[in-house]
Amino acid sequence: MEIDVDEHVGSLYRTLSGAVVPRPIGWISTRSATGVDNLAPYSFFNVVSIDPPVVMFAPVDADDGLKDTPQNVLDTEVFAVNIVTADLVEAMNETATGHDVDEFERAGLTKREGTRIDAPYVGESKVVFECELYEFVDIGVSSLVLGEVTYVHVDDAVVTAGKLDTTKLDAVGRLAGSEYTYTRDRFSLERPE
Ligand SMILES: Cc1cc2nc3c(=O)[nH]c(=O)nc-3n(C[C@H](O)[C@H](O)[C@H](O)COP(=O)(O)O)c2cc1C
């Protein structure tokens, strides 16, 4: 299959999201300008920088414009990233819903108040990054939301000898469509000298 993007008819979504796998899932919690709490998964998500600590997620517009999460971030300039672990996948899936719903209530999740930000986070999440908006970039019918991490919550249950333990964390990733992957199938590869 060869794809000349200029001549391609239809969406490249499946090719892009099917090849860039597995993708981590940023479960983004926000509060609207009118005080409605919101939670939604975004797998166009990653770390961008360590110093300053910056993460990104990328919402694609809904048919009627910005999704709730990016709109709330524009309005309040804060958000939290909740890491999705194997025990939380079903709850995460429940929160991929539409407008003006408090997804914490819908998915039966514990809502905790941010320490540094005026937004909620998921009490059950073992790692949470509280973020302040660093930059919001329009990219066609999508946005790139960059957030500077200003406070981190890490459950002691996923810490070994003072370091975050990836095995204990048991995070999941997204593949294409409704397929996901565990982070349990491991191998090591030492870098050359
Ligand atoms: C695992 C998963 C990953 C998702 N990743 C994205 C994404 O990267 N970008 C996006 O626009 N929508 C993504 N979605 C869809 C949004 O979660 C969905 O549109 C949601 O209703 C948006 O909620 P909001 O309007 O409250 O922000 C994803 C859904 C799931 C289940």
Describe the protein.
- This protein is globular.
- 31% of the residues are buried.
- The chain has one domain: Electron Transport, Fmn-binding Protein, Chain A (Pnp Oxidase, Chain A).
- It has 193 residues and is α+β, with helices and mostly antiparallel strands.
- The chain contains five helices and 14 strands.
- The structure holds flavin mononucleotide.
- Flavin mononucleotide is lined by residues 25, 38, 40-44, 58-60, 67-69, 93, 96-98, 174.
If you consult CATH, what is the topology?
A: Pnp Oxidase, Chain A
- The total count of strands amounts to 14
CATH class: Mainly Beta
Question: Helix share of residues?
Answer: 10-25%
Separate helix tally: 5
> Structural class, please?
alpha+beta
Unreliable runs: none
Bound ligands, each once: flavin mononucleotide
Per CATH, the architecture is Roll
Concise account of the structure shown:
With about 190 residues, the protein is α+β, with helices and mostly antiparallel strands. The chain has helices spanning about 15-20, 70-75, 90-95, 105, 165-170, and strands at about 25, 25-30, 35-40, 45-50, 55, 80-85, 110-115, 120, 125-140, 140-155, 160, 165, 170-175, 180. The protein has a single domain (about 25-170), classed as Electron Transport, Fmn-binding Protein, Chain A (Pnp Oxidase, Chain A).
Question: Can you give keywords for this protein?
Answer:
7-stranded antiparallel sheet; 14 strands; binds flavin mononucleotide; 5 helices; alpha+beta
